[in-house]
Amino acid sequence: MKHLKFPGLCLLFMFCSAVIAAQNKLPVNEPNYSKPKLFTNLPDQVPVDITELKTLITGNATAGKEVQLRSSDSRITSFKGKIVSAASKYNYKMQSVVIRSTEFNGATLTLSSSVQPDGTITYTGRIISFQHGDLYVLEKQNDNYILVKKNYYDLVNE
Q1: Closest by alpha carbon to 145, among 108, 116, 112, 100?
Q2: pTM, whole model, 2 decimals?
């Protein structure tokens, strides 16, 4: 009688490797395009003065402090909120502040500044709420900074 232990063991190994899955498939989230808009009563572009950005970044930013970001346009109300966190790195070459809005439910303003090698300061930021379908992104246009309204899924992929 032939010994069938080795072929039987190989057959068992092949069966186990065919049945066992090495990785779990992650569920894919479909975008929810019916999210409510948060900034419907605000314009598509909000001009921001550079001195306001400097004040928020370099000011005495401590957690819990009430601050506001005023627009260059006097017809537009300011963004008011409380500082959640503030950070500075590399001898103040990179600074950031996160402000939670007290007027727009769930919205946070994230603002960062960095000193470029030529000594100029650039600002980046956004006002975003993960429960809503619109947001603002800080963009530089002709040496001026403007908050530009965009759709949530233009920046976020799920």
Answers
A1: 112
A2: 0.74
